Amino acid sequence: MTRKEQFMYEAVCVGLEGMRAGLGGPFGCVVVKDDKIIGKGCNSVLRDNDPTAHAEVVAIRDACRNLQSFQLEGCEVYATCEPCPMCMGALYWARPQKVYYASTRADAADIGFDDAFIYKEISLPVDARKIAMTCVRCDEAIRMFEEWRAMKHKNLY
Amino acid sequence: MTRKEQFMYEAVCVGLEGMRAGLGGPFGCVVVKDDKIIGKGCNSVLRDNDPTAHAEVVAIRDACRNLQSFQLEGCEVYATCEPCPMCMGALYWARPQKVYYASTRADAADIGFDDAFIYKEISLPVDARKIAMTCVRCDEAIRMFEEWRAMKHKNLY
What we know:
The structure is a homodimer. By secondary structure, chain A is α+β, with helices and mostly antiparallel strands. The first copy, chain A, contains seven helices and five strands, in the order αββααβαβααβα. Chain A has helices spanning about 5-20, 45-50, 55-65, 85-95, 105-110, 115-125, 140-150; strands spanning about 30-35, 35-40, 75-80, 100-105, 130-135. Chain A starts with a helix and ends in a 7-residue tail after the last helix. Chains A and B meet through helix 1, helix 2, helix 3, strand 3 and helix 4 of A and helix 1, helix 2, helix 3, strand 3 and helix 4 of B.
């Protein structure tokens, strides 16, 4: 096994354990830094009643907690399946160096996980989406942005 | 104030409180069911060292915990800003009935939160993205999907 295959195998083991324990679907993820696993997660949607508890999100949160940082600088992420749009967004905010995945979104669709639908929706204009999204203008919301802009000594992220 | 403006104002209050306490950026969110707020959240990226702790994700998790369900059936979500791709994905998995937002992604970009970049990246083919994403084929990952398919009595989500 190559190094990458080894870490991907570890991600599969995390996913299998969670799936067999009924935590959620067949997905696992590990975060690696300096050749060590510093975070891991399996899909835990069912156990946690948390639709955001995808393997990647759980692993990112675990790794960030361990690093005490909201950035995964210099890290590699190994996900057993191509990330869905939510996880892709989470990865962009976490900014790891590289992402490796094994199964593809087509493989996932084949067992009933239809990320393709969300990929399509996310590219549509807001008013053409299946979940109705409506803008409600709110002066206080704009004022909150202005207060943020005017704040000194704020942490940027 | 209309009913919608009232709930949006509540979302702003949640966001303001978090921002002023240094938890994270200027974003708030409430989840409403049967005219009652059943979940809320502010951006808590800085306090929690969690890049996924956007207001919508925090509010979805809170509402789901309170409902003891991984679905927000019949719920409305009020977010003080147009959801980023991660939060959009999270909303699709949570499946609320409606989403309302106040400020737009253009307003957010104007104070330095560049969701547009992620929106663009997410529409690109995997190999054209800024964060390198590489497929590492793995037989065990495919076998995990087959084991899931063959499982009886599994919960679907």
